[in-house]
Design brief:
Strand order of the largest sheet: 1-2-4-3-5-6-7-8
Number of helices: 10
Oligomer: single chain
Strand content: 15-25%
Length: about 250
């Protein structure tokens, strides 16, 4: 996907397709490439798909939090003249989607959450590796997935580089603390938007009970399970993920 990136001012993003807008929001340690399959599938099947690089490490430290990442999303939608969008988020990206929906409900037509934070921040925070040796980082990265082979050397190298960069490590911690402060439990019952929850049955970061709680608290939600799947369903089970989501869009006329 990196060959499709466009940079305009403070925004770097990939865009393809025509139709209702889907905005994909990546996680704290997540690359845009995690969504390659989803990006390609929906941009070729009647949707305009956009995936912006979130400014996780370019905002000032004091502004590195969920609130300002949601404001960045608002600015991005305005930049692209999009008044209403489907928000699809994994992990921290899901949390940003939820906070944005709380602030700007009229700008969201539907939500798609997979391994989202917002309720279980202790589990989320524990999963982010602290500085350490390469083998430790590799082990923690592999624990994110049901199939540890998904954690390629390139992926582990990226995480290792991030956690051993002092400023990036501080900003990672700042975001994790902000996620704890912005627990969404009291806000979810007010979100009447159609919501698709797609969860790995073996998600050890935001565990199955987190998905069940999202389902209980979000009044217009549907919950789908992917077996033999960890925290990043769109990476680990891309074809199943796309199939479940596409059927859901059709069933909800989205």
């Amino acid at each position: 996907m990196t060959d499709k990136l466009t940079t305009e001012g403070k925004f770097t993003y990939a865009e393809a397709g025509e139709g209702p807008a889907i905005i994909i929001l990546h996680g704290l340690m997540g690359a845009l490439s995690n969504f390659d399959s989803t990006f390609d599938h929906f941009s070729n099947n009647g949707y305009k798909v956009l995936i912006p690089e979130l400014p996780l490490y370019s905002l000032p430290l004091i502004k590195t939090n969920v609130k300002n990442l949601a404001k960045f999303l608002k600015d991005f939608l305005e930049h692209k003249n999009i008044n209403n969008a489907i928000l699809l988020g994994n992990s921290l990206g899901g949390h940003i989607a939820l906070y944005f929906t709380k602030q700007y409900p009229e700008k969201v037509s539907a939500l798609v959450l997979t391994g989202s934070s917002g309720l279980y921040e202790k589990a989320m925070g524990d999963s982010f590796p602290k500085r350490g040796n390469y083998e430790y980082i590799e082990q923690k990265a592999r624990e994110v997935f049901y199939d540890p082979a998904i954690a390629t050397k390139e992926l582990v190298d990226d995480v290792y580089s991030t956690v051993n960069d002092r400023m990036k490590a501080l900003k990672t911690l700042s975001i994790a603390k902000s996620a704890i402060r912005h627990n969404m439990a009291n806000d979810l019952p007010n979100m009447k938007h159609p919501t698709c929850l797609i969860w790995g049955k073996q998600d050890g970061v935001t565990p199955p009970e987190s998905a069940e709680d999202f389902h209980k608290l979000l009044p217009n939600s549907d919950l789908f399970w992917l077996d033999k799947c960890g925290h990043a369903a769109m990476m680990e089970k891309p074809e199943e993920f796309n199939q479940v989501l596409h059927k859901w869009f059709v069933s909800r006329n989205i």
